[in-house]
Specification:
Layout (H helix, E strand, L loop, with lengths): L8 H36 L8 H13 L2 H15 L1 H19 L5 H4 L2 H31 L5 H29 L2 H8 L1 H5 L1 H12 L6 H8 L8 H7 L1 H18 L6 H8 L5 H29 L1 H23 L4 H17 L4 H8 L2 H19 L3 H12 L3 H18 L20
């Protein structure tokens, strides 16, 4: 395996597959909780806690985000010291175990207030895992890639998110179609959580066969790995951490309209659309998101990472209010159209992310920098996006208030993009990085 040029042939394909499969499994696990938060947990676990059960249920999605930075710090520290591969295996096991346990937690009717408490504790473990997963998967793919194709190879762990969304909605839609509404609420929703056992086994089989990043191996052999990566990261690169977080926050807030379950919950509860139909509509949009994410990564190798980001943010902004107008018609075909076009801007602001983050930081702090930027951006953007959306829509009586909130987040990301230096051709050896100027 060439150190500077990246893996080739079957080795390279295995690296990309490991990054994509692992991320897919992590986000399948993460999303089935988010989707069930609006459709199941509000009534089965949080209804006994008061009239704001739906808000409380959505809030548990956000609580896990506050533990993502902790997961990012721990995984980043270890990933920059002992390697990317070991962290990918650990985070996959943590996410899988917590998801399977969620599938067997009794509801409030059976064990009282202990039920939502156990659910929240397991959601926290998911947050810790998600905080460390992405950085390792993204860096493994990008650090193995040839310099001229980092954008495309970095897009493969990114498409694990729409694939995870596709799987989560698909399995839930299948279970919903095969059960009555009462059966789905009673036991059907547990099936996707328990199926995670199979996915984790597949992911572990693939990830344990992947070689360590060649760039990290060079640092380790030179004994240049930082003993405490957070110190040089925040001393020399805190502006990059902030800018990276703002870029992702703008993408994450918008993405969590579907990945956080808000659109599904609104369509079923307020527009009275069939649950299986709505889940299928989101699956179609996940395919569009996958395609636009790959396209965004491919374009990033040709016109630059930041230019693709900016195109994506403009697309998000232009489509924001038409998106909610089409959803509010209650027409299934228009719902699908709204979600598919919504996915274009989302993919363009997600596809280039892995390559951009990898090129922003020196090798010795790269895992920490990428993971922490990602985790902070998730807190600022996605943590309470479904909760905020639900509160805005309930308080104002219109989904256009939600559109206004997402438009503001998009503008913040667009502005931040002008302060990040694009370095698509920089070597990934241990050299300084910085913002524009």
């Amino acid at each position: 395996m060439a150190r500077s040029g990246g893996a080739v042939g079957s080795d390279h394909r295995r690296v990309v597959l490991a990054a994509m499969i692992g991320t897919t499994i992590e986000w399948y696990d993460f999303f089935i909780y988010a989707i069930c938060a609006g459709q199941v947990f509000a009534t089965q676990y949080f209804a006994a806690l008061g009239k704001d059960a739906l808000l409380l249920s959505f809030a548990t999605i956000g609580i896990s985000f506050f533990f993502r930075p902790i997961g990012a710090v721990v995984a980043g520290h270890l990933g920059d010291r002992i390697g990317r591969r070991a962290m990918l295996i650990l985070t996959l096991l943590l996410m899988g175990a917590s998801t399977v346990l969620m599938g067997v937690v009794p509801n409030t009717a059976a064990i009282g207030v202990a039920a939502p408490i156990l659910l929240v504790l397991l959601r926290i473990v998911q947050g810790l895992s998600a905080g460390g997963e992405w950085g390792g998967a993204a860096l493994l793919a990008v650090e193995h890639a040839p310099p001229g194709r980092r954008g495309l190879y970095g897009a493969f762990p990114q498409i694990g998110v729409p694939i995870g969304l596709l799987l989560a909605n698909g399995v839930l839609a299948l279970v919903a179609a095969l059960t009555t509404p009462a059966q789905f609420l009673d036991w059907g929703w547990r099936v996707p959580f328990l199926l995670s056992v199979v996915l984790i086994a597949v992911g572990m089989l693939i990830r344990t066969r992947v070689a360590e990043s060649p760039v990290f191996e060079e640092v380790r052999e030179a004994k240049a790995a930082s003993s405490l990566p957070l110190v040089p990261l925040f001393r020399h690169h805190w502006r990059l951490v902030l800018l990276g977080a703002l870029l992702f926050a703008a993408n994450n807030a918008v993405g969590y309209m579907t990945t956080g379950g808000y659109v599904q919950s609104y369509a079923v509860r307020s527009l009275h659309l069939d649950r299986s139909t709505v889940l299928l509509a989101v699956m179609v949009s996940a395919v569009a998101w996958l395609a636009s994410t790959l396209l965004g990564g491919w374009l990033a190798d040709r016109i630059g990472r930041i230019r693709v980001y900016q195109l994506g943010f403009v697309a998000q902004l232009l489509w924001m209010f038409p998106f909610f107008a089409l959803i509010d018609t209650g027409n299934v075909a228009l719902l699908v159209l709204a979600l598919v076009l919504f996915a274009v801007g989302l993919g363009f602001t997600y596809g280039p992310q892995a390559a951009l983050y990898a090129e922003m930081y020196p090798t010795r702090v790269r895992y920490s920098g990428a993971a922490i930027s990602y985790a902070i951006g998730a807190v600022l953007g996605g943590a309470f996006a479904p909760t905020i959306a639900e509160a805005l829509q309930s308080g104002t009586g219109t989904v256009y208030a939600v559109g206004g909130y997402l438009a503001v987040m998009t503008v913040i990301g667009l502005v931040a993009s002008f302060f990040v230096r694009d370095r698509p051709g920089r070597p990934l050896g241990d050299v300084p990085a910085g913002t524009g100027g």
